[in-house]
Every structure is written in structure tokens, then in C-alpha cells.
Amino acid sequence: MAIFLTKDSKVIVQGMTGAEGMKHTRRMLASGTQIVGGVNPRKAGTTVDVDGTEIPVFGSVAEAMEKTGADVSVLFVPPAFTKAAVVEAIDAEIGLAVVITEGVPVHDTAAFWAYAGAKGNKTRIIGPNCPGLISPGQSNAGIIPADITSSGKIGLVSKSGTLTYQLMYELRDIGFSSAVGIGGDPVIGTTHIDALKAFQEDPDTEIIVMIGEIGGDAEERAAAFIAEHVTKPVVGYVAGFTAPEGKTMGHAGAIVSGSSGTAQAKKEALEAAGVKVGKTPSETARLAREIIAAQA
Length: 296
Hints:
Elements: E1 10-14, H1 19-30, E2 34-39, E3 47-50, E4 53-58, H2 61-68, E5 72-75, H3 79-91, E6 96-99, H4 106-118, E7 124-126, E8 132-135, E9 139-142, E10 151-158, H5 161-170, E11 176-181, H6 192-201, E12 207-213, H7 218-229, E13 234-239, H8 263-272, E14 276-278, H9 281-295
Parallel strand pairs: 1-2, 1-5, 2-4, 5-6, 6-7, 10-11, 10-12, 12-13, 13-14
Antiparallel strand pairs: 3-4, 8-9, 8-11
């Protein structure tokens, strides 16, 4: 099992013919992802040879879905055009839109997030500014390296791309059902809570690892959800314990105001909900190992 993405997922790539889109299309294909098409109105009707696989290019998401049965789109679209591309995916009612693009204006993200809601939330948005998601051995939608881990029983949700990779690598011998990078912008589509709910309901996920960071209150809200709804063990890590107060750190959403949004406040909220919180990524991996060993 996996969440949001399985071996049966049929993936299209908006922006496939650009340099980044082509590079990661090649990587996704090599990892076993069913990539059934690209979208570029200017190159509609052509095909692209990707390491011996001919991939058709369509003029729109709706056409790609009609011709291929696609249910996932990965977006490698420049920031200025991302809003229009996501709106197109929402209008086509594709099930999952994975927005990799960094630097999307927050106003644009808020607009397409609200638009998805107004359209009945038929399209799940992951991102923007995220590495995507992977269900190891099944499918990979985004830029997560496919060869750093294996399939297993850990579910991972993370604001940070690089910390996603580190935890996947450190726990590679145990493996993951799915790993979801939700992105670190102030406004994102899929949240920690959405992923926690899905992992709680996934029979093959036995333990959840959650990576947060300073800024905002997403981790505190996730802690409240865990206390109320999650029965599986959860291990957490909060990036930014050494960040200077009032300074934006890396992700646009990682800014602390007063005592709100500090790593310590998030750690305390998570621990109050029964989550074991590591002081470093490696300690977080060790805590996960201890819980799994105790379950054996």
C-alpha cells in the first residue's frame, strides 16, 4: 500500500519539454513511474524520446487525461506561469497535482488553493516548492532520488526536501510506504494533517515520521490532530532550533515572531501529543528504530 501515489498511477508532466522537466522525467521513468505524456501547448502533437521511450506531448491537461487516463500531474513550470498551469489541472479535475516549482508568489498559491476548494477539492495539490512524493518500488512523482531507500513500513511527511532525503537514507533498511514532501512555503496544498490522516488509514504504514520547521503553527495543529486521531507511533523533528529570532530561514514560511513558531514551542506541543521528538535528524531516525524494534 501507499498514500496518494501507487504503481497504477498514470503521470503526466506539465513543462516536460523544458530542461528541468526533461531531466526529472528521465529520472522518474528510470525509477518505474508510469509517465504517459507531457503537456506543452506549443509542442502538442509531437513526441519526445526519453532514453528509448516515446512520450507524447499534448496541448492541455484535459487532452492528456482523455487520451491516456492520467490521474497525476507533476509541474515543472516557471513561477510566473505556475498559477495558470495549476488552474488548468484543477479545471481538468486531475486527482493529484504535484507542484515542484520554487518561488511561486504566495498570492498565486493562495488563489489556486482557494480555486481548488471552490471546485470541490477534486484535485489534491502537493507543494509548491516541494520535492514531490515517492512510494518506493511503485512510483515517484517529483525530484526525490529513487535509489536512496526501499519499500517498507514507515510513512514520512516533511516540509524539507533535504531532510526528507536524509531520513529516507538513514532508515533505508527498514523502508517507506510513502514519503511526501509538502514544501515549506507559507501557503501549501497538502498539509502535515492531510498526510497524517492518510498514513493512519494506510494498513501497511506502521510508524509515521514527521519533519517540521520553525515558523507558523502547522506543527502545533498537527500535534492536536495526532492527539485526537492518530493511534500509530509518530516520531518528529523540528528544523531550526538554532535560528535567530525574527530571521527568515531558507523556506519562505520559516519565520518566527516572538514566541510563536519557535522550534521549542513546536517540540513541546508534539511531545504533549505523545510524539517522540529528536534533537537532530539522526536522533530522530534512532527513535524510529527503537519504536520499530520494540514492536518486533
